[in-house]
């Protein structure tokens, strides 16, 4: 495929410049798995930049005289006011499914910013820390996945997806929901309450709290529960009240899958107790804890083996825009709650003892998963060191 720059240069004086360039830029950003596309107009030049794996890269230099036609095209894609160039605007671009097995179309967030040199744009792609949505494609070891699936198919209780922000919790939850949908289909009602909907699942009723004026997270959760969903996703458990609501819903015969901010799976039960939650509630409702991290995968096209350490290090090639990385992989650890763990929670055993019982019940280990991924050349040693300093 011709490079993006030569594509841009070839169409710059054509009659359909805006349309063609917008499509070329969106397609290139998607192909590279960028989370954002920036169109930046500066004093003497204009750039298309993509944020990939957290870092901004220049994708192409844009012809400055044709810059406005391009931003107008993006704005009309998002059905924004194309005349008004004075005010920042925000809107959505509806776009077909990205290349790959994902079936649902995607909505890209477009924001404009007037600057002294012209109107800049940023397009945000739905967060896709792991490109494919499906438990089998997240990089989970088979035994861990089998245990998660078995717990999902029980169809009740609470499963917490732990990790830091950007740790792949939402993707893991979506994958779990999809797995359940694949086996139970429309016999179950799926409802999600999320700050922003990162991906339109197609089979679930999804509430985007931040995009609904006047709606609070707690209010949305209560409303969702009144509709008695079989499966409820809670996009974030930040405080004791949300945690209590989620755990109680899990006791009422539904399956609740909630995102929880915690570094490691084994620390979660004690954290819940420290938040002041009833030990009986935690012990009886909490069925599983999945902790995850997302690591940048080495570009297989250009990774190179370090002669001394034997580990693979990033190179740089056209396929990965010279970054050395392409796509991402997930690292996981999973706890299926055992009777011993429930007993330790119920009796409010010391924190260390609860953690020890949790560790006993654990399948996989984040640190070991990272080590194995380094050994196999899936991720770079430097990447593992960033994730687990
Ligand atoms: Zn490469």
* Helical fraction: 25-40%
**Roughly what fraction of the amino acids lie in strands?**
25-35%
Alpha-beta content class: alpha/beta
The number of distinct structural domains comes to 2
Spatial arrangement of strands, main beta sheet: 9-8-10-11-7-12-15-16
Can you count the beta strands? 16
CATH topology of the largest domain: Rossmann fold
Radius of gyration, in Å, reads 23 Å
Low-confidence stretches: 99-103
Q: What is the mean pLDDT?
A: 90
Distance between the termini: 39 Å
Ligands in the model, by name, code or SMILES, are: zinc ion
* CATH homology superfamily name of the largest domain: P-loop containing nucleotide triphosphate hydrolases
The CATH class assignment of the largest domain is Alpha Beta
Order of helices and strands: HHEEEHEEEHEHEEHEHEHHEEEEHHEHH
How many individual helices? Answer: 13
- Biggest sheet features: 8 strands, mixed
Shape: globular
- CATH architectural grouping of the largest domain: 3-Layer(aba) Sandwich
